[in-house]
Amino acid sequence: MINLLWRRRELGKTVFAILLTLLLYAYAAASAAIAALAVETPTPATALATTAETIDFKAIKGIIKNDMLEEVVEKKNEEAIIKQKDLLKKKVDTYNFPTSEEFWTLISEYWLIKNAQKLRWDFEHPDFGLNLAVRDLFESLGHYEIKVKILLADIASPTHFALPANKDEYIFFISLPFMRAMDLSKLEIALLILEDFHRAKAGFMQQYVYEKELDEFWGKNFYNKKFKAEVFQKMLKNYSYFIFEKGFSFQQQFETTKTISAQIRTNPNLWKSYNNLLFKIDTLIKSNPTFKEYTKIYPSPEIQLQWLKASEKQ
Amino acid sequence: MFRSLTLLLFFLLSSIVINIINSSSASSNDNKNELQKKFIGTFYASHFFINIHQHPSSFAPSLHTLACGDSVKVYEISGKGAAIPEDWHSVDIETTQGYVQKALLSTERPSCMQKNYPKFFDHLHLEPTDLYYWGKLYDQLIMEKTRVR
User: Fold this and answer.
1) Is residue B71 domain-shared with residue B48, that is, in the same domain?
2) What's the CA gap between A25 and A33, in Å, rounded?
3) B148 vs chain A: nearest CA distance in angstroms?
4) Structural domain harbouring B44
5) Based on the structure, what is the number of domains in chain A?
6) B128 located within any domain
7) Which of B18-27, B40-49, B89-98 has the highest mean pLDDT?
8) Which of A194, A224, B20, B52 is the one with CA 20 to 30 A from A174?
9) Can you give the pLDDT at residue A91?
10) Which residues pair with B75 in a beta bridge?
11) Interface predicted TM-score (ipTM) over 0.90
């Protein structure tokens, strides 16, 4: 009897365990099925929202007038006109032309990328710390809040130049072989960049490369106006001609040298370094045929040294 | 027989539980050896065009070129073997993971010429190689700013 009772109890426990396990599986399967079947049913509101209706009110004009719906029609027409005007305004705004202050960095960088292969600025090189030398020199001479971009190139010529840029922004290009040929110190390189800074500030190159066709467009809108994109190509050609062929005049060199000498004459270290720099350049161009074209662009280091001596005596 | 059934059920359930415990401990071990990525924020390209690089170096291969105003997700990488130079960010954009110089990104959406003057930009007729080289230009430019007066 006791045995029978015990067996019944065991059976009950086993059946309970089996039923519990089956129940858990069934629950898990049902949850998965519900998740799979869940579909976003469209609401009546969304169905209506997307349809655009045009109703011809002419046929039922009399009825509409009596029901005061004419005002609603007028209001809808006004809204449609306002919406059209907004769209037109957005379209016209896409034809805005930048101001001259925003334009120069763009066109100068555009010239650099178009001449990437020729200028060979895309090459691996160490960090020479030139940015810090230039920053320290500029700050010591009172040139504050200036953005400087320096680009090194693995090409002997052009040796160095500053490109036109936006206000208080300067883009300097400098040849690594040129620097290495003279074994320039960081201060001498910074002084060379200072020369280019003053040339850029005076606007010598900018005045030459500028195309007057752009005068009528600065800061305006050219929607429905004829604007020729060829003007950009003309400017790029002007850039190339100035940098590779034309260069600066004696008068421009004299003004640059005079400006620098006035700035650095009270600092003996800078004065000596600048004289040293010009002497190194003069020696290099006379002894190394690779740099013989230097005076075509920057006439002439020898005369610059004479101007400095003359100003020193004064 | 009933006892054996009960024992069988007991072993079945205990094996399931042990499997669950094992898989969770394995995943936590994996996490300790992997690099940890912590989302810092969404940054924006702040120059005309910039490149995302395969490694944190301006001379590493470029994976993608961003236009001014394009957003990227910036992550801080930590863990064994994480060594990113201080002036670089680890970024994600869509399916691309790479590195960008910190100086070329900003935390706020900048004012971009491409967005402000789209038709003007169209007149430049930029080609895909131009965009690539423009990104390379910003990899090569050494940028500095003199202090405020």
Assistant:
1) yes
2) 12
3) 5
4) 36-140
5) 1
6) yes
7) B40-49
8) B52
9) 92
10) B39, B90
11) no
